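Dear Dr. H.,

I hope your travels went smoothly. While you were away I took the liberty of generating a structure for the chain from your last submission, since the lab meeting agenda had it listed for discussion. I wanted you to have the full record in hand beforehand rather than looking at slides cold. The sequence, exactly as received, is reproduced here:
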Amino acid sequence: MVYKNSLLAGLAGGVAMGLVMALLGSTPMVAELVAPNSMVWGWVSFLVVSAVLGVLYALTLGNRLSRGSLNPWGGGLLYGFIWYLLGPLTLWPALMGLGVQWSGAGITGSVNSFVGHLVFGAVLGWVHQRLANRSISSATSAAS
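The corresponding predicted structure, in token form, is as follows:
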């Protein structure tokens, strides 16, 4: 159940990030890289990556999440920030043959992505916690 919740939370974070990026006049890099000529396939690929990142969230932070020692907002924001560093500043430029973009220009050029990744993480953390609480409440009710 935890992975289903994580997958759904990742999708929710992806939708929120995509909407914020669209409002800021940007397209998520995954969508541009995977399917530059198809908005539909670009969004599908972006949401698949978002769902996978949601599951990775549970795998990497699962113990802290289940013990309640990690604030869902804070954990989500941290996770989004880490993926901002890994994604648009490191992995995607490397895949495009540009090398890492850890310069002032690289960071300045990816401000929209920074905001999008923080929104992704915050929504991911919040939705994941809400779904986990709902699962616990359902299990407790069923046991009674």
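Two observations you may find useful: The mean pLDDT is 86. The longest helix spans residues 111-143.

With kind regards,
E. W.
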